[in-house]
Specification:
Ubiquitin-like (UB roll), 308 residues, three-stranded mixed β-sheet, elongated, 7 helices, Rossmann fold, nine-stranded mixed β-sheet, alpha/beta
Length: 308
């Protein structure tokens, strides 16, 4: 016969049983997890890995006797093959470039020149000295600078290089309009007042004789106004006459009739100055007067002197 179960007593028993199970579970020590090895590079000390010795490859060589062999010293395994390949390529390119610079195909043998008048090809070639040089080592800017420093008589120079070993030099020579002679030193002067060494002394140009250097401006040998005055005087005077220069009175000339004429420093009123001079000469010849100096530098006050 079944006994009756008190519901209150059964509830208390269930509560005590759950509390006991909870205490038993909390008293169990947690189990340690086994270590996990990571195969990624994160957290790995690369310095330690790189410091490890390289793996060596075992090499066994069989002998003639059956089953006999000899073991050779282990050969380290090769790493970074791409670096070795790139290094070999760089060395190969370097050797190829050196061989190209030494090849006769790229050596300058002939130089084409355009625009020569008074200069010769041998003079230009001697100044730049590039025959036999490799085309890879020729700098057009340096060639132009060498020519201008050696021959100031060249006003415009261009250098072009073509493969495999072609060099073309185009140049323009300065045209002299007068030759300035001071104490035995001669310089040719172009229309811009730039001076340069005479080339072929037989050139027929106006001669200016002086005991001093001419007036300069902006680092030019001669003031361009002096050059213009010489050109104007040349149009009025005989071709073979020699001009003179005086620092006080400017340009002039020695007249064949026995006097010196001073024209001034510029070509202002040049035509009027020449008319005044001719009128003054006619007056002096009518009076049978032979002056030593006639000065028409200033049109409003010309004069003559009987003494030098």
């Amino acid at each position: 016969m079944n006994a009756a179960v008190d519901p209150r007593t059964a509830g208390k028993r269930e509560v005590r049983r759950s509390q006991k199970n909870r205490r038993d579970f909390s008293s169990v020590s947690p189990r340690k997890m086994p270590p996990v090895q990571s195969r990624s590079a994160i957290g790995v000390n690369n310095t330690v890995i790189d410091a490890r010795p390289l793996p060596r490859r075992r090499v066994d060589v069989p002998l003639s006797a059956t089953g006999a062999e000899i073991r050779l010293p282990a050969v380290p395994a090769v790493r970074n093959k791409w670096r070795i390949l790139s290094g070999l390529l760089a060395v190969g390119l370097l050797v190829g470039m050196i061989m190209m610079t030494q090849a006769s195909l790229f050596q300058v043998k002939q130089i084409e020149m355009q625009g020569l008048e008074r200069f010769t090809e041998s003079e230009i070639s001697h100044a730049i000295n590039i025959r036999g040089s490799s085309i890879f080592f020729i700098n057009p800017e340096l060639v132009i600078e060498d020519l201008r420093l050696t021959y100031p008589g060249l006003s415009d120079v261009t250098v072009k290089i073509s493969w495999p070993a072609g060099v073309l030099i185009s140049l323009k020579e300065r045209a002299p309009v007068l030759a300035w002679n001071w104490n035995g030193h001669v310089r040719w002067v172009d229309e811009n007042g730039v001076a340069f060494e005479p080339h072929h002394e037989s050139a027929k140009i106006i001669q200016v004789s002086s005991t001093m250097l001419p007036p300069t401006i902006e680092n030019r040998f001669v003031d361009p106004r002096i050059v213009n005055t010489v050109a104007v005087l040349a149009s009025y005077l005989p071709e073979d006459i020699e001009l003179i220069f005086d620092m006080d009175h400017g340009l002039g000339w020695q007249d064949d009739r026995g006097w010196v004429v001073y024209f001034g420093f510029n070509d202002d009123d040049a035509h009027q100055k020449m008319k005044i001079y001719q009128t003054l000469v006619e007056y002096l010849e009518g009076k049978r007067i032979t002056p030593r100096v006639i000065n028409v530098e200033y049109v409003d006050s010309p004069y003559f002197r009987m003494e030098q």
